[in-house]
Amino acid sequence: MPNDRINLTNQFLIAMPGMADPTFSGTVVYLCEHSERGAIGLVINRPTDIDLQSLFDRLDLKLEIEPLVHQPVFFGGPVQTERGFVLHEATGTTYSSSLSVPGGLEMTTSKDVLEAVAHGGGPSRFLLTLGHSGWSAGQLEDEISKNGWLTVAADPGIVFEVPPAERFEAALALLGISSSMLSADAGHA
């Protein structure tokens, strides 16, 4: 029996205007894992009012890198919002709890990556979120089939170099479209 299941690991999910869940309206999600068991990802374009300095203070870590002090912490999704998730480029360093995304980035959930960042030895390009986005088996595929999401191969440059307010349009541009071209209504030919 052929395996015709789609694998969206290392892809962006771009919320369509008709997204039924207001939590995800206008979001871009980096998919860290997608399998027959479900999917996990991080919203990359929703900064919170918490900055790294505030979060590190709560964790009793001294952030020694001045340019990072005011970097925002992001809303990664509605699941485990009390837990931190660090999306970063591979550094060659092994952290206690990391998921290496095939062909893509790494997602680390252990405090050791934050300790490394605090002392200037961690990944130079990273995005820290509180919470993640998760889908049970078949749920994401169902949402895509109902015109909830567009998908495109992820570009780390959008995650780390594009200002958060511009990431939605930048992700759409990977498909050669802009938000003005999208409709909330699904059509049938």
Automatic annotation (TrEMBL):
Which residues are listed as membrane-spanning? Answer: none
Which branch of life, at top level? Bacteria
GO cellular-component term (any): cytosol
One Pfam family assigned to this protein is DUF179
Report the family membership: Belongs to the UPF0301 (AlgH) family.
Alphabetical list of PANTHER family matching this protein: UNCHARACTERIZED PROTEIN YQGE, UPF0301 PROTEIN YQGE
NCBIfam families associated with the record: PRK00228.1-1, PRK00228.1-2
Q: What is this protein called?
A: UPF0301 protein PTE30175_01444
